């Protein structure tokens, strides 16, 4: 099936709608479809890791291209009867419960289509907000990286610069020092204390306090970091801790609770066991709930949420069957 293919949206109420077609959403849908649930995945086609050359740290699929991983996942979901619909959610909200009192939700897409579902799995992922440094964003996912486990091996032994944004960057520096002997820490006004400077010096991490003016590059990639005094520090890679913001587009009607990450590093959906939220019938999985999760962890969270959604539906189905049986007994 073509990569951008979309399935027909059902007119009937489905068991579950999954908002987000990444690793978490597809794995959640897979668990539901294998449990013979009617499930539909809404895929906006904008995965967070699209700029990356490969997915790493994923046992058995090390280095697979992100697009290929998702293509395989979509095929697997469809193989069990799940549907994948290309589109963007503009609104989602609780609707009138069924006659038996079971939960209902309405999801509206940008093309005007409307879906009705018993349960929702939000797997929208997150957006990475980069510091406002000229020349930085254009190299995101290649010369500009954020995760030593996702990209570290690929940039090993390169001259790397840490662009500090706050306390998280101190930890960042120690992790990237494991990967290269040529590391420069650009403080960007974060003012590391003397103990931190001593630790950096012991690991041969050079500290630069002069503000960064821009990132220099050619067609071949990053060449250096230009400072406000005009000096250029040669670098091939910039590592930066981004601000991690869960994607909430179209979801405000659900009134899902949010939580802030420490030190202003981002915001995500608040969840409990297996991604269940305080809003009945709604689960969240993947980076939207756990911003630091890699692909494998996100997929696992989606699978767990899918299993719990199926269990919740099984309980609701049983409640409805018991109520129907009692009505039959009363009528007799």
Automatic annotation (TrEMBL):
Reaction catalyzed: [thioredoxin]-dithiol + NADP(+) = [thioredoxin]-disulfide + NADPH + H(+)
GO molecular function: thioredoxin-disulfide reductase (NADPH) activity
Pfam families: Pyr_redox_2
Annotated ranges, domain FAD/NAD(P)-binding: 15-293
Alphabetic keyword roster: Flavoprotein, Oxidoreductase
Source superkingdom: Bacteria
Record protein name field: Oxidoreductase
Organism, as annotated: Nonomuraea cavernae
């Amino acid at each position: 099936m073509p990569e951008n293919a979309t399935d027909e949206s059902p007119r009937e109420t489905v068991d579950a709608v999954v908002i987000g077609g990444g690793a978490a959403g597809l794995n959640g849908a897979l668990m539901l479809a294998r449990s013979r649930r009617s499930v539909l995945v809404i895929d906006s086609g904008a995965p967070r890791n699209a700029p990356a050359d490969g997915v790493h740290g994923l046992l058995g699929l090390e280095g697979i291209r992100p697009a290929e991983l998702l293509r395989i996942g979509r095929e697997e979901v469809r193989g069990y009867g799940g549907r994948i619909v290309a589109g963007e959610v503009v609104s989602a909200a609780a609707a009138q419960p069924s006659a038996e009192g079971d939960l209902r939700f309405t999801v509206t897409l940008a093309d005007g289509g409307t879906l009705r579902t018993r349960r929702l799995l939000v797997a929208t992922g997150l957006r990475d907000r980069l510091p406002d440094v000229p020349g930085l964003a254009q190299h995101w996912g290649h010369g500009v990286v954020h995760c030593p486990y996702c990209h570290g091996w690929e940039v090993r032994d390169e001259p790397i610069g840490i662009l500090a944004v706050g306390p998280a960057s101190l930890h960042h520096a120690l992790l990237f020092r494991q990967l290269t002997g040529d590391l420069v820490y650009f403080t960007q006004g974060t003012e590391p204390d003397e103990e931190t400077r001593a630790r950096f010096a012991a690991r041969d991490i050079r500290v630069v306090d002069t503000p960064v003016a821009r990132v220099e590059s050619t067609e071949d990639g990053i060449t250096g970091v230009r400072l406000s005094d005009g000096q250029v520090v040669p670098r091939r890679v910039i590592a930066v801790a981004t601000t991690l913001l869960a994607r909430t587009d179209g979801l405000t009607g659900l009134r899902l609770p949010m939580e802030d990450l420490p030190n202003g590093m981002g915001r995500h959906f608040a969840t409990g066991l297996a991604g269940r939220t305080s809003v009945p019938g709604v689960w969240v999985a993947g980076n939207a709930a756990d911003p630091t999760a890699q692909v494998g962890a996100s997929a696992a969270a989606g699978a767990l949420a899918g299993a719990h959604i199926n269990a919740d539906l099984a309980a609701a189905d049983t409640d409805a069957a018991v109520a129907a049986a009692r009505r039959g007994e009363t009528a007799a």
